[in-house]
Amino acid sequence: MGSGWHEWPLVLFTVLGQCVAGALIVSGYGWLTTKDDVGKTTYRA
Predict the structure, then answer these.
(1) Quick one: how far is CA 33 from the chain centroid?
(2) Is the torsion defined by CA of 5, 6, 10, 13 positive or negative?
(3) What is the CA radius of gyration of the chain?
(4) What is the C-alpha separation between 16 and 36, in angstroms, rounded?
(5) How much is the pLDDT for 8?
(6) Cα within 13 Å of Cα(45), Cβ side
(7) Cβ partners under 8 Å of residue 44, min gap 6
């Protein structure tokens, strides 16, 4: 059995890919909710 050094690029790519996917989901959800809030509220002077 080898030391498994050939697995590290796959592990790093998988972790980074999951982080990017999670960040897109969270930021997209936040963007949609704040966009809805801004549309519903009217500011009157």
Answers:
(1) 15
(2) positive
(3) 20
(4) 30
(5) 93
(6) 0
(7) none
Tokens of 14: 């998988």
Euclidean distance between CA atoms 35 and 45, whole angstroms = 21
pLDDT, tens digit (0-9, with 9 covering 90-100), for 1-45:
677 889 999 999 999 999 999 999 999 999 998 877 655 666 666
The greatest distance separating any two alpha carbons of the chain, rounded to the nearest whole angstrom, comes to 73
Q: Which two tokens stand for residue 9?
A: 């690029």
Q: In angstroms, what CA-CA distances link 35 with 7, 16, 24, 29, 42?
A: 42, 28, 16, 10, 13
Instruction: At 13, list the tokens.
Output: 């790519």
